[in-house]
Amino acid sequence: MGQRQQHRATHSARDHALAVLRARNSALALALLPAAVAVVLFAAGPDVPDAVRWPVAGVAVAVIAVAAAVGVLIARARPAVTPTIDVSEADAPALHGLIRDLADRLAVPHPGGIALTPDCDSWLEEQPRTRDTGGPHALAGSDTRAPVLVIGSPFLWWMRVGELRALLAPVVAGTGPSAHPDIAAARRCVRSWDATAGLAAGAWPPRHPLLALSGAVSRLLLRAAGTHAAEMERGVAAAASARAHSVDHGVRTAAQEQVGLAYAGWDRLLTKVALPAWRMGRWPRRLNAGVVSALTELSRRDRLAAQGFASRLGERPACDLLEEPGRVDEEISLLAARLFHGGPGHDAAPWAPVDWTAYPEEVVDRIWRDRAARLFAALDAEETPTLARALSRLTEAAAGPGGPDALAARIGTAADGGTDGPLPAATTGGRSGVLPPLGFPAQPPATGRELLVEHVAAAVCCATADTTGATPALDWLDGPVLRSGSPRRPTDLKRLGGCVHSLVDEADPEPLRAWLTAAGVREDKPVRLV
Q1: What sign does the dihedral 228-171-334-439 (CA atoms) show?
Q2: Confidence of residue 429 (pLDDT cuts 50, 70, 90)
Q3: What rounded mean pLDDT belongs to the chain?
């Protein structure tokens, strides 16, 4: 049954690939049609007057010249390349051996190489003939033209070896259909058309007429062959899934459960932990190790997630397949920072790594101090930065005309250039054809009052740390937190947000004063701002 499904899916993919190629051939035939008419007219001899033959010949030459130029532009267009970290066999002989054994079990060609990406996904990627940074390191005995196996780095750190092999089996099986000449040619056509359409998207036709024409032709071909290209990919995926069905099928079910868990942990780590550090020019050095810590903490808190967790700890983690997982983790972490955040501006200081042990002091504490300083500056209370003065000014601003919106606007203007500045778009390094495929989810912009609440809470946390011995800390699931310095006076941060909202929204400072008293915070003591 599985072989029949595989055979049927493969034939479907090939049929749709031929349909894509027919669209290409139809465009080529259309470009050659004037030349064919001219040949027929000249072959007819003196029966056709020169007044007809030569104008048709001129049109044919012009059409062929334009078609050749368009064809060259389309052929030379560089498809977008996923930014990855190449993994050579010297860096991961065990991982390369696992992929080779898996390809042999599936009776498919070996992938052309292995690369890692900071994303919770895995796929086969066709590589261009040349790359600025050199192609990925190929597997021994593999065809260098074969697609490269791209593995999501969180999988490598969170999953066990058996789970990773089961998860990658359908992906590696895709090298079989990909090796068919018709499917490979159809994919090259679609990638070239898509790349040309992307390049021509911003071209002004009067200034770049040839590029604009190439883009229009590519878009027409994509519309004509788009349905067949999608069905071809579905057929390839179905054939690969059917081929891999019998390989570690039971383990794959458990591995798929871990995919969702890894995605949740990775997304939480990026938004709650990595993003605050990126905004201030620091990149956490070991993001993938942080994912493991975050998911371990989730398993500790959530009994449902903890089911089977203890038994998994006894199995070998897939990152052991790397010779130096720490170094690879650092490279992936820096790539993630550049992809999802874009890097510091030209006038900013260069990025610096930060270890998880130093994160509370170098990231959390600095963010809070910067926000507190910004708040006191907006309140004109920098000379005497005490909570008592801040609460008094905030109460006056909240109760005054217009409420706290004017104060929030001043803080928002100052925050645009600081550690709370807007998230820039990911950069491409100025190289055409190297586009980041991983878009960081757009965060809804904080309203003025939300920003004001964050700054007031930061000032309170600074005062609490200065007067009660509490310390900034890192929670793997919630991000920056404040650890109480005294077990007798636990710091109830869950109530803090509501108390600050009462002050900002209702001009009522009493809930916050009660919270400060319960936490043992002295309002009259100056807050350290640096």
Answers
A1: positive
A2: very low
A3: 83
How many CA atoms lie less than 13 Å away from 387 in the CB half-sphere? 28
Q: Which two tokens stand for residue 140?
A: 């021994």
**CB-count exposure of residue 62 (10 Å: 0-12, 13-18, 19+):** exposed
Q: CA 317, CA 239: separation in Å to the nearest integer?
A: 29
User: DSSP string covering 5-33, please?
Assistant: HHHHHHHHHHHHHHHHHHHHHHHHHHHHH
Q: What is the DSSP string of 368-408?
A: HHHHHHHHHHHTT-SSS-BHHHHHHHHHHHHHSTTTTHHHH
**Residue whose C-alpha is closest to residue 411's, from 375, 376, 361:** 375
Cα–Cα dist 223/476, whole Å? 46
Element (H, E) at 502: helix 493-506
Going by pLDDT thresholds of 50, 70 and 90, the confidence category of residue 137 is low
Distance between CA atoms of 405 and 450, rounded to whole angstroms? 10
- Please report, for residues 150, 287, 326, the alpha-carbon distance to residue 330 in angstroms, rounded to integers and kept in the order given: 18, 8, 6
Cα distance between residue 261 and residue 119, in whole Å: 13
Alpha carbon distance 527, 465 (integer Å) = 9
Residue with tokens 């690879």: 328
Helix-then-strand count for the chain, H and E: 21, 8
Instruction: For residue 426, give the nearest of 444, 415, 414, 442 by alpha carbon.
Output: 442
Pairing status of strand 282-284 against strand 148-152: unpaired
- What is the residue whose two structure tokens read 């030569």? 54
For residue 524, give every residue at least 6 positions away whose Cβ sits within 8 Å of its Cβ, in sequence order, or none: 386, 387, 388
3-state secondary structure of 483: strand
CA angle 475, 481, 487 (to 5 degrees): 100
Give whichever of 31-45, 116-130, 318-332 has the largest mean pLDDT: 318-332
Q: Which of 434, 474, 319 is nearest to 79 (CA)?
A: 434
526 token code pair: 């100056």
Helix (H), strand (E) at residue 122 = strand 122-125
Q: Where are the alpha helices (DSSP H) in 92-208?
A: 93-106, 153-158, 161-173, 175-178, 181-200
Q: Which helix (H) or strand (E) holds 124?
A: strand 122-125
Q: Mean pLDDT, to the nearest integer, of 174-179?
A: 88
In three-state secondary structure terms, 142 is coil
Give residue-wise pLDDT tens across range 358-412: 999 999 999 999 999 998 888 887 777 888 888 888 887 777 776 677 788 888 7
CA distance 128 to 292: 34
The model's pLDDT over 213-230, given as tens digits with 9 standing for 90+, comes to: 999 999 999 999 999 999
The model's confidence at residue 269, banded by pLDDT at 50, 70 and 90, is very high
Q: Indicate the helix (H) or strand (E) that contains 65.
A: helix 50-76
